[in-house]
Amino acid sequence: MNAYKIKYSDELYHHGILGQKWGVRRFQNSDGSLTSEGKERYGRSGSKRSLKLTDKQKKIAKIGAAVVVTGLAAYGVYSIYKKNPSVLSDGKVFNLTESSSISKIEHPTGGIPKQLKPESFKESLSKANPYIGKPEGVNICNQSALSGFLRSCKEHYDVVAKPNGGKMLDLGGMVEEVFPGIETMKPKRMLDGSAVRFGKSVSDAKAMLVERFGKNAEGVVGIQWKNADYGHTFNWVIKDGEVSFIDYSQASDDVIRYWRQIDPQGHLTLARLDGLIPNEDTLKKYCG
Description:
The protein contains eight helices and six strands. By secondary structure, the chain is α+β, with helices and mostly antiparallel strands. The strands form two sheets. Strands 5-4-3-6 form a four-stranded antiparallel sheet, with helices on both faces. The protein has a two-stranded antiparallel sheet with strand order 1-2. The two termini are 65 Å apart.
């Protein structure tokens, strides 16, 4: 360990300028008035200092002023950022409150909000239905499936399921309203036996979806439970021929157990949603 010794002194030293003489000033008389050189240097009256700047001095002064202005501008932007960190590189300031999610950004011209930063699948799964385990979350599977798709699609919309007072919505009617022009498959028993095949087993359901929609597609499916007049809605995704099922209403990607309860003879609603643009006005009824 190094030790340092500081020596203190009560002596005061002053170093002047070489050739300096105490009490003698170059441009001032002993009575305080200016000499002729002093008057020329500081002005005839002696009350103001009027310096004649050379071109080089003027240039330096301009540069100095520019630096000051730039510095003040930079400080202004920094001050705005400190007060509101949601200042974007586009030059637009979005007034997000402290309670707002940083991933949510409202378009200044309106429209459906999009995520500021695309979230992961797990994040979409956990955020699509904020009412899990709450009274508002009863019969919200249709809205959850829709919000889950919109959060995870390439546009990364920032929406969540909206409660409907516990009333079960019609899946086919909802998607046809939100995506104008879409054709849903919703007969009680499809003539080609799709309903029976989908409800038979997980492997049959996957094979049927690939045959019908190809190797890359995604959408929603509504099924009916055995011995019940109601059912459930969840999502399906086909990526490079591999099929997976997701239940955004329960934040679960493990829905294989559902096939023990699906009624193959019951209602089946299928809708492919990828590549579709939702209608802003009608979407507000189901997602917020």
